[in-house]
Design brief:
Layout (H helix, E strand, L loop, with lengths): L9 E5 L4 H12 L3 E6 L2 H8 L5 E5 L5 H15 L4 E4 L15 H28 L5 E6 L12 H20 L5 E9 L4 H5 L6 E2 L5 E2 L6 H13 L8 E5 L10
Helix pairs in contact: 1-7, 3-4, 4-5
Length: 253
């Protein structure tokens, strides 16, 4: 039974079945939020929720508009509003240069990282405009690749640069409705995606060498997201960059 107070804030977290999304969802639940957990794999969402009474598991593919609408309808039907969206679902995409990537792989990466983020943001904005009182906060999960790419990551890098434009546009257009939007760009937090690019065993560098790079705990990345979510409505946090200390970001290349 959900014993959280009626005034408890409501958050939607996409990509909540693993990694940063899982840890953010858990920290929000611990902080008193009511949280709708979205992702493609229901079993993993249930693991994240761990039977918490203020968690709502909603299987959702963010590339499908009907799924996204159903996600936000479920949150509103259960709790009446949406106060925060952590727009987190994403994929790293193929290791390829622009002359090597297939159109199919390009479109698949763009569909999740960019179009899916747009669909979720659009649904959140509609909900935040319609509720009383109006307003809310959207936090987009970018990447330090929104600033500086890794080699052979053209699709991922382009989507994360585009995420910055999406963030700024939502922030601008939301001003009259009390809706703020910010972006968190995280580098080398210890999640499964880091294994796919070999950060712990030797990630490809700009000069063609491979280097073991430092990582930092995912719980600390999630703490930064929670900080953004908990800022008062009078404050807009436009950009936060959090990286593992000593990783090759400043001076990358």
């Amino acid at each position: 039974m959900d014993t959280s107070p009626p005034t408890a804030r409501v958050a939607v977290v996409t990509g909540a079945g693993s990694g940063i999304g899982r840890e953010v969802a858990r920290q929000m639940l611990a902080d008193g939020y009511r949280v709708a957990l979205a992702g493609r794999r229901e079993a993993q969402l249930k693991e994240t929720a761990d039977n918490h009474p203020a968690a709502l598991v909603v299987p959702c593919d963010v590339t499908r508009p009907d799924d996204v609408e159903r996600l936000f309808d479920a949150a509103r039907q259960k709790w009446g509003r949406v106060d925060v969206l952590f727009n987190n679902a994403g994929v790293f995409g193929p290791a390829a240069g622009v002359d090597e990537i297939s159109l199919e792989d390009w479109n698949a990466t763009v569909a999740v990282n960019l179009t899916g983020s747009m669909l979720c943001a659009a649904a959140a904005v509609r909900a935040m405009k319609a509720q009383e009182p109006q307003g809310g906060r959207i936090i987009n999960n970018g990447s330090i690749s929104a600033h500086s790419p890794r080699p052979r990551t053209v699709a991922y890098t382009v989507t994360k640069h585009a995420m910055t434009g999406l963030t700024k546009s939502i922030e601008l257009d939301g001003r009259g409705y009390g809706i703020t939007c910010g972006q968190i760009d995280i580098g080398n937090t210890a999640t499964e995606i880091m294994d796919t690019i070999g950060v712990g065993s030797g990630a490809l560098q700009a000069d063609g060498s491979r280097r073991v790079e430092p990582m930092f705990p995912v719980k600390d990345a999630a703490r930064a997201v929670l900080m953004m979510a908990n800022m008062p409505a009078t404050a807009s946090v436009g950009s936060v960059v959090v990286t593992a200390a000593g990783m090759p970001f400043i001076g990358r290349g």
